[in-house]
Amino acid sequence: MTARSLTRIVYPMTGLLLIVVAWGLACWLGRLPVVVLPSPDKVLYAFAGNIPLLLEESWVTLKETLYGFGLALLLGLPMAVAVANSRTLNLMFYPLLIALQSVPKVALAPIILVWLGPDLQSKLAIAWLVAFFPIIVDTAAGLRATPKELLELAHSLKATRTQILFKVQFPAALPFVMTGAKVAITLAVIGAVIGEFVGSSEGLGFLLLTATSQLDTPLAFAALFALSILGVLVYLMVEAVELLIAPWLPPAPERH
Amino acid sequence: MAFGTIKNVRKVFPVGELGSRATEPVVALDDASFSFERGELIALLGPSGCGKTTLLRIVAGLIAKTSGSVTIGGREVTGPLGDYGFVFQAPSLMPWRSVIDNVLFPMEILRRSDKAARARASELLALVGLATFHHARPHQLSGGMQQRVALCRALIHQPNLLLMDEPFGALDELTRLEMNDLLLRIRQETGASVLFVTHSISEAVYLADQVIVFSRRPARVSQQIPVSLPYPRNQAMRFTPAFTQAERAASEALGIVPHVEALAS
Ligand SMILES: Nc1ncnc2c1ncn2[C@@H]1O[C@H](COP(=O)(O)OP(=O)(O)OP(=O)(O)O)[C@@H](O)[C@H]1O
Ligand SMILES: [Mg+2]
Fold first, then answer.
1. Cα separation of B263 and B265, whole Å?
2. What are the chain A neighbours of B96 within 8 Å (beta carbons)?
3. pLDDT of residue A8
4. Does the pLDDT value for residue B161 go beyond 90?
5. B11 CB less than 6 Å from ligand 1?
6. Is B84 on the interface with A (CB under 8 A)?
7. What are the pLDDT digits (tens) for A237-248?
């Protein structure tokens, strides 16, 4: 095991273990009722006992997340290109985008539910909405941060717009796109769960809500953990894609 | 007729023009005129901000001039001609491409990236001493090595004019001297004409057939100094009277040392 994987795996695991121990101690010493805070073993029991259910609901939430995220990429990237390359479009829409980015989009969830109904579409739409802004804003910023020299070099060779976009601007913007994508995928999970909270009959958010309403707090915690695992997994997926398509990126700075 | 003619070129950056940062019209170039023969290496020397980069960009057809004319190889420059090499102060390589793919970039843009191009890229990399670095990433190279890659990239499409904007300004003295010799060798082998912007008087004199000295902003050509040293040059020539004389003439034109006549009176 290298020193790097040691720091990346062993340390967080130890930290997690410490928290679980503190949590167990709190339950035991504080004699908290299970409904308020179930002890770790009860949560583990609920988790292990409901794996098929958790998997099924996770699958629903995962689909909503990925569809929303995928749609955000599909629409966000071309729109970023348009905004970054056209002065007019930029002047017209960029300030608007920045302004919209700060609107609490989850507040729109009930309205979207009214429009799209309680099925997959509404969750997808909310996930899309929250994932869309980091992607378009970061991508546009990346496209416009293309080194001037590279653009001049391309122009001096009479490069076409397409060549400039695909051979210069887009690769140069890729680190920004990936940063946006990492934020976006995390937000997409949140968007999907919010959608499920507001109105749904399936998904981890729905499970969480029904479990708490039935005072089955251990199951609610189990759903919460499933949700965390899902969040980490989709984030790692984006990171893996990043390593695959942009291996030249300098390694992430060591965090303290 | 001369290979390149720059005649009464004037550039004013108006307020609010697309891509202009100016808050009031900036006269970047007042009146620049000089000419050069095919294969000549011309050093452009002048105080910071006097418009040297602007002139290079005009010659490259990247920005429009306000008035005057630029003719290169018998063609009036109104836009990019596609057969120049460009070297900037920073290497400006693409971090997502390997060394050899960086060198091949111009060929891809010109849609001439074939076997012959790859062979030529290898040849160029060998010429600059990077034969074993084809597949390295730019960030794995030192600044001097990166600038050599940038030089190969500028030469791959066999341009007839090389535009260099303080290409060695960021390098340490020793590397810079090596790069000077390398450039002269490459120039000899390719026969390309070179417009070379520099801040260093001795670099200008060491490299150039002629040194063009610009006045303070707004720039005019204040003097055209021929360097009478023969090629191939070597570092020992720095200590010859001809070298010192040219350096003195350039310094006088820049106003760093008073003119000899002024001293006498
Ligand atoms: N796009 C632009 N918009 C407005 N003014 C500009 C622009 N580009 C250059 N200028 C101005 O034109 C003048 C000449 O700039 P230029 O970059 O050509 O100088 P330079 O001789 O290359 O300087 P240095 O030696 O420091 O590189 C400067 O005053 C600069 O502020
Ligand atoms: Mg300059």
1. 6
2. 171-172, 174, 246, 248
3. 81
4. yes
5. no
6. yes
7. 999 999 888 777
Nearest to B44 by CA among B57, B30, B62, B56: B56
Which residues of chain A neighbour B109 with C-beta distances below 8 Å?
154, 157-159, 163, 167
Give me B172's structure tokens: 């340490």
d(CA A188, CA A32): 34
- In sequence order, which residues have a C-beta less than 8 Å from that of residue A35 and are 6 or more positions away? A215, A217
A159 reaches B (C-beta below 8 A) = yes
Dist. CA B138–CA A216, nearest whole Å: 57
Cross-chain residue pair B92–A149, CB shorter than 8 Å: yes
Task: Check CB contact of A144 with chain B, cutoff 8 Å.
Answer: no
The token pair at B240 is 């010859």
Nearest to A156 among B18, B80, B92 (CB): B80
- Give the tokens for residue A202: 């399936």
Q: Domains in chain B, start-ordered, CATH in brackets?
A: 4-83+163-264 (3.40.50.300), 95-158 (no CATH)
CA-based nearest residue to B57, from B32, B40, B36? B32
A189 in Cβ contact with A234 (< 8 Å)? yes
Average pLDDT over residues B199-220: 90
Q: Helix A109-116 and helix A120-144: axis angle, to 10°?
A: 120
Ligand 2 centroid to residue B199 C-alpha, Å: 9
State both tokens at A137.
Answer: 């804003």
DSSP state of A105: G
- To test the contact with chain B by mutation, choose from A157, A166, A168, A245 the residue with the greatest count of B C-beta atoms within 10 A, namely A157
Ordered by where they begin, the domains of chain A are 39-248 (1.10.3720.10)
Map residue B188 onto helix, strand or coil: helix
Of residues A3, A37, A8, A1, the one with CA closest to residue A20? A37
- What's the start-to-end Cα distance of chain A, in Å? 21
Q: Please give the mean pLDDT across all residues of chain B.
A: 90
The pLDDT of residue A236: 94
- 3 state DSSP class of A127: helix
pTM, rounded to two decimals: 0.85
The span from the CA of B77 to the CA of B73, in Å, is 10
Contact B217 CB / ligand 1 (< 6 Å): yes
- pLDDT of A252 reads 46
Pull the structure tokens for residue B95: 């971090």
